[in-house]
Every structure is written in C-alpha cells, then in structure tokens.
Amino acid sequence: MQYDPIKRSLGKVFNANPWLRKLFYKLLDLLLLRAWHIKKQIRLWAKDYKETASVLDAGSGFGQYSYFMAANYPSWKIISVDVKEEQIADCNQFFNTIGLNNATFQIADLTTFVQPEQFDLVLSVDVMEHIAEDEKVFSNFHNSLKNGGMLLISTPSDQGGSDVHDDEHESFVDEHVRDGYNIDDIKEKLLRAGFSKVEAKYTYGTPGNISWKLSMKYPLLMLNFSKLLFIILPFYYLLTYPFCLLLNSMDLNMHQKRGTGLSVQAWK
Fold first, then answer.
1. How many whole angstroms separate alpha carbon 105 and alpha carbon 91?
2. Is 200 in contact with 243 (CB distance < 8 Å)?
C-alpha cells in the first residue's frame, strides 16, 4: 500500500487552519499506540531534564512529537529534520503561526546529518525501517549525542512488523526497505555504532496488534481504495475506538513477550 499519498491527503485536510492541525495531533496521539509508548518514555527521560535539553527529532514527519516536546517542555531546544521538503516547510509555517519557537525544522538526510555532541536526546520514530544504510545513521546518532545522551527508537520488529508474517507476505507499507528488526540484531548494530548500553522491548503485542488493525490498517485500506470513504471514518471510529483505547492501555502496561513493534533505548 502507498502510504505517502494518504498522508499528503490527510495533511491537506488538517492544514486548513492551526486548530485543525492541533486536532490532527490529538487524533494521532489517541490512535497511534506508538505515540503512547514514545510519550511515556519521553516523560520518564524528562524527569532528569526539567530545566533544559537539546533534542533531535530525527525524521519528524508531521511534527507531532516535536509539538508534544515543544509545548510541554518550553525550555527544551528541538531541532527537527526530515528529507521531505514539503513537510519541513509545512511544519515551519505551522510552528511559526502558533508562536512555538523552541522547535525548528530543516531538510536533512540522516545518512549524512551529524552535529557532534550537540544533543541530549535523539528521537527516531518509525524511521529506520525506511533507511537501508541503518548502521551509518546509528553512527551519526551516536556522534551527535553528548556523553550520557540517549537515543530513543520506535520501529517494527521481525515478529510481524509491517504486517509481514512469513516470506510470502509483503510489507503493508510499500516505502519500507525492511519489514522489521530482530531485537538482538538492532542491539548489536547500536553497540557497534559506539553506544555503551542498549535496552529493547517489544510493543504491539496481541492487544496492540488488534488495536492497530482496527484503528490504522483497516481505515488506511479504506482510504487507499477511495478518498470518499473519509466521510465515514468518524462513524467508524465512534464504534471501534473504545475497544482500541482498552487494547492500547493493556499493551502499554503489560510486558509483551513478543510483538510487532520495538521500543529501543541506547545510551552514549
């Protein structure tokens, strides 16, 4: 499935004015289980950085995580990068319009982007599955972190990530260059990149995977079939979201022995 055209269509709808953009972020936070996991980890990390922090949002996309950090931690300085020029321009315009000046957006390729020892935190959400030269990017992340800094990654696992369950399945998202990471493989790559400590855990276990299908997979398949089906989405979510809310909460608070997603932390 081509994911980018759907993202562009959604962007046009919710960019009509700032309050719609904020509503879009709220919806993403509610619907995307990875946002639940990422925001939980950011809050835990932030306890040690109440005054100030320098953060890289590596592959910022729509800018929802930059918005979360900039709005909730006004003393933080956030640099957000992405290879897509239209999304960078769009995010800069939105953040300037609402007067949120502690986050700036710029075009950058993560395989070449390095700012030596500048960041306390590097955030990479659903990015590494799109980049073939992943070890080069991990090395750049390591070099860009200050000593003691942390890298936080969310990415599909090889336990059914990208909705791939055997060799005959293709990725649900055509733009992925890998279906998912083996948990030991990503740990080894990060250690080779120079990180001193790596922790990884599964997300999107059984409850989270069911929620993903209800809240993301099936709606995206509908929109890929016809944009006119956007009209029925609010009614669809009224019926399904109470179940997704419960399932997401279970996934967030349970230890998952396996799952289709990975949450990875690595320290320099």
1. 7
2. no
Q: For the domain that residue 185 is a member of, what is the CATH number?
A: 3.40.50.150
Decide: 115 and 226 in contact? Cβ < 8 Å: no
Per-residue pLDDT reduced to its tens digit, 224-234 = 777 677 788 88
CB-based contact 182:131 (threshold 8 Å): no
CA distances from 99 to 64, 85, 94, 114, 209 (A): 15, 21, 9, 28, 37
Amino acid identity of residue 60, one-letter, is S
Domain that holds residue 42: 4-267
Q: Kindly report, residue by residue over 68-111, the tens digit of the pLDDT.
A: 999 999 999 999 999 999 889 999 999 999 999 999 999 999 99
Q: 100, 21, 30, 68: which is closest to 241 by C-alpha? A: 30
Q: What pTM was computed for the model?
A: 0.87
Distance in angstroms (rounded) separating the CA atoms of residues 70 and 166: 40
Number of structural domains (the chain) is 1
